[in-house]
């Protein structure tokens, strides 16, 4: 799946609900999922890690949609001038 497809999927599944929740709540959910990913990396199975990676990606895509920003465009930085 391409990043733009991920954003489209999340928009179709949860876009209206996520926007009504708002940016602060979306950022909080993303942070919570990153914490769960960190725990899965430390103590979880590969299946747990994969699940949490998906959750982080989903919330990041939701945040990007709410900001009206493209993840593809954001990653272009790493294509053109990696840090």
- Using the 3D structure, state the CATH architecture: Orthogonal Bundle
- Morphology: globular
Number of strands: 0
Number of helices: 4
3D architecture notes:
There is one protein chain. The radius of gyration is 14 Å and the shape is globular. The chain has one domain (3-80): Helix Hairpins. The protein has helices at 3-21, 23-43, 46-66, 71-80. Helix content is 86%, strand content 0%. The longest helix has 21 residues, at 23-43. With 83 residues, it is mainly alpha-helical. It is built from four helices and no strands. The chain starts with a helix and ends with a helix. The mean pLDDT is 97.
What would a concise description of this structure say?
With 83 residues, this protein is mainly α. It is built from four helices and no strands.
How is the secondary structure organized here?
Blueprint: H1 3-21, H2 23-43, H3 46-66, H4 71-80
Helix pairs in contact: 1-3, 2-3
What descriptive keywords fit this protein?
Helix Hairpins; 0% strand; mainly alpha; globular; 83 residues; 4 helices
């Amino acid at each position: 799946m391409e990043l733009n497809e991920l954003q489209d999927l999340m928009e179709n599944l949860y876009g209206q609900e996520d926007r009504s929740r708002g940016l602060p709540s979306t950022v909080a959910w993303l942070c919570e999922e990153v914490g769960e990913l960190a725990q899965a990396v430390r103590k979880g199975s590969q299946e747990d890690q994969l699940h949490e990676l998906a959750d982080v990606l989903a919330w990041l895509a939701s945040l990007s949609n709410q900001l009206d920003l493209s993840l593809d465009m954001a990653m272009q930085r790493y294509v053109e001038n990696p840090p």
